[in-house]
Amino acid sequence: MIQEEIRCVEMVEVITEWMEGALDDDTRVAVEEHLAICPDCTAYLDQLRATTEVAADTSPPEPAPDDVRARLVAAFLASRPSSGPAPDGG
């Protein structure tokens, strides 16, 4: 059976579903045939996989120690303009 050719712009729309195995067989085959001949979409897929891998490995940062947090809050508050009248009296 001849598969309908898929275009690069369509790849962007379906590539994550392809990665998750959520496409119907015809669309999956069309994606795989396109990846076999298109270096740009293959590079896009590689970048998407790398991004997904990095995001999966990211854990929330440790909270700052209390003393560091207190100094940061104090510095932030000190840097805010006062809520009083403007220096020119207006």
Give the helices and strands, then pairings.
Blueprint: H1 8-19, H2 25-37, H3 39-57, H4 66-79
Explain how this protein is built.
This protein has 90 residues and is mainly α. It has a domain at 1-58. The chain is 64% helix and 0% strand. The protein has four helices and no strands. 7% of the residues are buried. The mean pLDDT is 85.
- The proportion of strand residues reads under 5%
Low-confidence stretches: none
Structural class: mainly alpha
Average residue-wise pLDDT: 85
Report the helical percentage. Answer: 55-70%
Order of helices and strands: HHHH
Report the biggest beta sheet as strand number plus sense, adding barrel if it closes.
none
Radius of gyration (Å): 26 Å
The number of distinct β-strands equals 0
| Overall form | elongated
The end-to-end span amounts to 79 Å
How many helix segments? 4
List keywords for this structure.
64% helix, 90 residues, mainly alpha, single chain
Summarize the structure.
The chain is an all-alpha fold and 90 residues long.
